[in-house]
Fold this protein.
Amino acid sequence: MGTFFYTMSTFDKQLGEFLTSYGLYIYALLFLLVYLKTAFVVLTFIPGDSLVFASGALAAVGSLNIETLAIVFFLATICGDNQNFSIGRLIKGWNSKRLKPFY
């Protein structure tokens, strides 16, 4: 379990190695990581901004396609934001039924 957390927290530093190992599956991994970072607040150990910058650097040297990368990041953030909003709305509904106002 410790290896999983270490791998996820240093994914931006190991992005080049993952690219050579997994090829085009790197786009799915990037989507998943950005989605999880955006959708679930408790996953703060996942790199967010540094992952985007590292991916952009790899796209600048031609290892990744910048158009595909932009679409992947756009869709991941939109889906993650909607998921986070839905979770907040669900918790608000649950919490408002449970607690009565004191005024």
